[in-house]
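Before relying on records like the one below, remember that each one covers exactly one chain. Contacts with other chains, cofactors or solvent are not represented anywhere in the record.
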Amino acid sequence: GEEEDQEVAPTPVAGAGSSTEEEKSLFDKINAVLDTPILDANDRSDQGPIAEALKRFVRREPQLASITFSAVVVAFMFMLVRIYNFIAYGI
């Protein structure tokens, strides 16, 4: 009859919520680490002569700094590929 046609809502498993919360907190921790800037130009504390020079450059010329850092990353990645190819294939 009618009782067989009714859908039964699944009951939550004990402890299932805690694992989801743990995973969420793990992802939140990873996200917080990834959101942390490598070099914060707004940090006014003294971090050494190289970091201070880079921060000064970023504050004075933000667009040029963005282009420069992007070019450095691309060049670094190219060099990694060349080193890998040299080691793997002797090219």
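The chain has a mean pLDDT of 81.
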